[in-house]
Write a structure and sequence with these properties.
Length: 320
């Protein structure tokens, strides 16, 4: 019997049906319930408090059915990076396993998931003086100038960073100016292999692209109906700004670009669809991945249940 910790990893972009899937498989109320599990959110914005509607967080009732981790940890002005995520996810996996439950890392932030599977590449410790200089340049010259600089120095890293992601632009430039090496040249702890301490099952939900985009557009409309505008204004009234890490997220940043509600709505839809497409680039070519065309049909659930049951191989109790 393997001594490795079993971890189920599910990549699922927004509106792809991951909440319905986890409810069906891991809630005792689900009709396809197979085992006790706890979900570790791989959503870079779910860590922030008071950002519930725009991040489509699971509600309290769902969290009572299935415990969730790495949500509501920080205020929107605090930074949370991929190293923080991997460290916290590792700790959660240990705790969940100790309870006899299955850790399920599930979300749509492909960058987080890839680094959890492979490990975070060791890079130099941040140099405060250099970091402050880069921040000053961002404030003075704008994200675009430094992003173009990064594209010249390290196009591979730049391709994986959003042009508005000032934190990661600065970090990639900082690594280069400290070492003379590209950020992309630093290899993860496994040297290119999946981390050996885990026995991973990696499932990728891949709905038909236009179906996914339509679901995303409908999800955005539901967010507006649920009070997204009120949520954003409440955050702004509390002193949070467009420069805070949390409010740079899709669904929040757009409110600082226009005063027209319909323009904001359409911008969120456009950015969300574009983001969903981009996230797949982070999880391509991962060995052993199970890519499933998931549309919420009965046969989709049955296929996933069969894949998980085969992987579990009776090493975890499947009933309470």
């Amino acid at each position: 019997m393997s001594t490795k910790t079993k971890v189920l990893v599910i990549f699922a972009p927004t509106a792809s049906g991951k909440t319905a899937l986890t409810r069906e498989l891991f809630s005792p109320l689900g009709s396809h319930f197979i085992l006790n599990a706890e979900v570790i959110s791989a959503d870079s914005q779910a860590v922030y408090k008071e950002m519930d509607i725009g991040t489509a967080k699971p509600d309290a009732d769902f969290c009572r059915q299935i415990p969730h981790h790495l949500i509501n940890l920080l205020t929107p002005d605090q930074q949370f990076n991929v190293s923080d995520f991997v460290d916290a996810a590792d700790k959660a996996c240990q705790e969940i396993t100790s309870r006899g439950h299955l850790p399920v890392v599930c979300g749509g932030t492909g960058f987080y998931i890839r680094n959890f599977l492979y490990g975070v590449a060791p890079t130099p410790v941040s140099d405060e003086k250099l970091r402050n200089k880069l921040k000053e340049r961002i404030a003075r010259e704008g994200n675009e100038v430094l992003y173009e600089e990064l594209k010249t120095i390290d196009p591979e890293s730049a391709a994986k960073i959003h042009p508005n992601d000032a934190y990661r632009i600065c970090r990639a430039l900082e690594v280069f100016y400290l070492t003379g090496l590209k950020r992309s040249s630093f290899k993860p702890e496994g040297g290119g292999d999946l981390r050996s301490k885990y026995d991973f099952l990696f499932i990728v939900l891949e709905p038909e692209r236009e179906v996914l985009y339509q679901r995303i557009r409908e999800r955005v409309d539901m967010m507006f109906e649920a009070g997204l505008e009120k949520e954003v204004h409440s955050l702004i009234e509390k002193g949070y700004t467009k420069d805070n890490p949390g409010l740079k997220a899709i669904g929040y940043s757009e409110w600082f670009e226009s005063n027209n509600i319909e323009e904001i709505r359409e911008a969120i839809k456009h950015h969300s669809c574009k983001y969903a497409k981009k996230q797949y680039t982070y999880i391509r070519d991962i060995p052993g991945s199970q890519i499933i065309d998931f549309s919420g049909r009965e046969e989709d659930y049955e296929k996933i249940v069969a894949v998980i049951n085969k992987w579990i191989a009776c090493t975890i109790d499947t009933r309470p």
